[in-house]
Amino acid sequence: MTRAEWLLVPGERGNTATGLDRRRPDAKAWSDGNQAHALVHGAAYFSELLAAIRVMRSGDLLLFTDWRGDPEERLAGQGTEIGTVLCRAARRHVVVKGLLWRSHLDGLRFSQEENRRFGKEIEEAGGECLLDMRVRPGGSHHQKMVVLRHPGRPELDVAYVGGIDLCRNRNDDDIHRGDRQSLPMASAYGPHPPWHDVQLALRGPVVGDVEAVFRERWQDPAPLSRSPVTRLRALMHREDTDADILPPQVADPVPCGTHTVQVLRTYPNRLLLGYPFAPDGERSIARGYLKALRRARALVYVEDQYLWSPKVVACFAQALSRNPGLLMIGVIPTVPEQDGRLTRPMNLVGRVTALDELRRAGGDRVALYGLENHAGTPVYVHAKVCVIDDVWASVGSDNINLRSWTHDSELSCAVVDECPDSRQPRDPGGLGDGARVFARELRLGLMREHLDVQGAEGQQAADPDALCDPATAFGAFEEAAAALDAWHEGGRRGPRPAGRLRRYTAPDLSGAQRALSTPLHHVLVDPDGRPLGLRRRNTF
Fold first, then answer.
1. Where would I find the H helices in 369-509?
2. CA 89/CA 62 separation, integer angstroms
3. Average pLDDT value for the chain
4. Which of 176, 291, 376, 533 has the CB geometry, 3.0–4.6 Å to 194, for a possible disulfide?
């Protein structure tokens, strides 16, 4: 196996304006010698992030981007509110710089006021946090990253990339009782919605790549918003609208592991004033998926918030059609995030049409599941993870839908481990390139949690090494979900079966289709929630 067979080589990113692929003397479009560690759930991520920020000192650099930030969200108990932690760092003369999406109106269930308040707190402490609306109309900045650099102490350098925002609802763990600091969601999720998510902790040269992504956005000379109303509002609120000059970027950390990491992104073709680092946009996330899926032979394992859009899932369907032995497992939310006359139908139509395409291609080789906690409350799957043949693994902010692949800004990392997995069978089910440690351990760790390998009564639900085999893993999910479904259908009598998996059953779309049949809806939005008139140039 060569990494060039799985990862994008120079020129395949489709964006010659970025400096990201020109940072290294060897001209590689990825970095070698990294250490990637998956932090599953907000509690694990927040705990590590808190410890890392606390050791930062004067002259260190803390950079972050986010879709939403709630300054009162606690990382690990009272006194660890993210706003407080960042402000304390700024007062220690850590250079704190942030980019938050300005957001649409709060009345549309977005986070304009929270992001403004978060930015204001950081500014008052001596940091700088800009509210960034340099997006296409109807789009968002969805990248979620934190970069910590330590001049003179590069062994502490780390970057965090994934799906976890610095906001409410995210601080949950594997028990899935939900974040005590909650935001309202669909009623099925209860007052404290259980939340499943993943973030990568990255050490090694890739930290410099992630920092370069931040710097490209920070140095964009375009105004933070083109709206006269927004500019006036920013003036009234005395918001900082001019980015200060960043300290020069220091050398990348030295190699420290066996993981090759490629930074992938989505940027739209921004109208009028394009991004100087992506004047015609960038679709490297989509292109990375397309290339990796062409090598899929045994198992595609996906955890995703949406799994929408027939156009996007077509590449998964093509892989299933090309390879009659290929299996696909998807873990998705059972219930849409919000109740509502428009949001719920959009979720249902967008997803079911995509799932129909997958099943036409793969039949019973495609299996989709939702999650619940041991109390029977659905778990909201916010993770954005894909593992292909236990070789290629992707974790990021991007969902499998058209927005994430064409319209919003997104950030993801594809990881290929140099170390083959030594457990037998090494090449199960025809994994042509042989399983790799990182990808396999990521998949197994997630599957073990969902299967309750160590259940509530300490009973072994499955042989963990047996899950290395794709067919065995596929069957284990199928059996666990069938047992739990039968227990619910039988009135929940007797001991609850091990596992958190429920088979995803496509809902009746008749009501949803009626809700989406109004002329106004067809003018305004598509199932990805974006104005239909802005769907041009959506090629990958």
1. 402, 437-451, 470-489
2. 9
3. 88
4. 176
